[in-house]
Amino acid sequence: MEPVLIVLVVLVVVAFIALIKTIQVIPQASAAIVERFGRYTRTLNAGLNIVVPFIDRVRNRIDLREQVVPFPPQPVITQDNLVVNIDTVIYYQVTDPRAATYEVASYIQAIEQLTVTTLRNIIGSMDLESTLTSREVINAGLRGVLDEATGKWGIRVNRVELKAIEPPTSIQDSMEKQMRADRDKRAAILTAEGQRQAQILKAEGEKQAEVLKAEGEAQAAVLRADGEAAAIRTVFEAIHDGDADQKLLAYQYLQTLPELAKGDANKLWIIPSEVGDALKGLGGAFNGLTGNGHGNGGGMNGGAVAAPSVPAAAPAATQVPIDPASGPRPVDTEKGAARPRVDPAREYRKIDPE
């Protein structure tokens, strides 16, 4: 009984192991390569799969999801002989598990080396400034070369990114100085433009203010002229409507003469020759009033009232032809005798206000 029991136990254990090897569960987004006697047979997809135990062997499981592989910094020489360190990141996905298993020994290492060599070829044809400003061009070039080379490996390269581009320390210092100088230049230009715009606006404002001021003064002058013209017109119409005679005008003329003597700067002023005619007319008017006063006074008070004496108008002077040697000599028209020679500037009456 004991040998039979031992055999049964061995058979149960072998059956259990065979059952375990027969049933293969593959996770989602994964695949497995099955070999029979060392030769590729089939690819197991996600789910429950059955294989022949002890004959079929699952070689490896491959993740079909997109993978991210960062590569360490690589020294690269640019066209202007500057060494820069570049970090790259590759996004790839296995599309054919069989090709990824049998076409290349280690596709991760192969992608890394291909990335380094391609990056050196692309950066070697560019200077430092183009390298720093042409990330998209570099990424597109790397992706094109890697996708073409890894296609036969059953791998699709989705994206290639340059994580960092580090130039030498001395170049970084120079770039910082240049950037600082550019910023200072732009700040100075903006400040100058702001001051220029402010001066332009200030000048335009002053110009508009002057124009408005001139227009206001012109309108004020026009209104003043219109007012003076209306006043003169009113006075003129009042004079004509009142039918003023020569005596009243002469009296108004004499009342205006004291205005000429006003002011501290007036030391000497000239009376026109028409003043004599005005005085003569005014004297005649006073004589007429005085005569009427005598008649009225004799009838009322029985006595005579002395009339104020009015000086007679000065006789007008005429000029004889000017003698070049002695100058003009006025002649008295009443006596006909020549008066002493006087200065031609004294042809008008001169009255000193003081």
How would you portray this structure in words?
Helices cover 52% and strands 20% of the residues. By secondary structure, it is α+β, with helices and mostly antiparallel strands. Among the domains are: 16-63, no CATH class; 67-167, Tetrahydropterin Synthase, Chain A (2-Layer Sandwich), CATH 3.30.479.30; 171-206; 245-293, no CATH class. The strands form four sheets. Strands 3-2-5 form a three-stranded antiparallel beta sheet. Strands 6-7-8 form a three-stranded antiparallel beta sheet. The termini are far apart. Residues 292-354 have low confidence and may be disordered. It is found in: Membrane. It is a single-pass membrane protein. Residues 310-354 are annotated as: Disordered.
Features:
about 350 residues; three-stranded antiparallel beta sheet; disordered C terminus; alpha+beta; Tetrahydropterin Synthase, Chain A; rod-shaped; 8 helices
Describe what is shown at a glance.
The chain has 354 residues and is an alpha+beta fold.
Number of strands: 10
The Rg value, from CA coordinates, equals: 64 Å
The helix-strand sequence is HEEEEEEEHHHHEHHEHE
Report the CATH superfamily of the domain at 67-167: Band 7 domain
Q: Estimate percent helicity.
A: 40-55%
The secondary-structure class comes to: alpha+beta
Assign the CATH class of the domain at 67-167: Alpha Beta
Terminal-residue CA separation: 173 Å
Which strand order spans the largest sheet, edge to edge or round the barrel? 3-2-5
| CATH topology name of the domain at 67-167 | Tetrahydropterin Synthase, Chain A
Tally of alpha and pi helices: 8
Averaged pLDDT: 76
The 3D shape can be described as rod-shaped
Low-confidence stretches: 292-354
- β-sheet strand percentage: 15-25%
**Main β-sheet description:** 3 strands, antiparallel
Tell me what the CATH architecture of the domain at 67-167 is: 2-Layer Sandwich
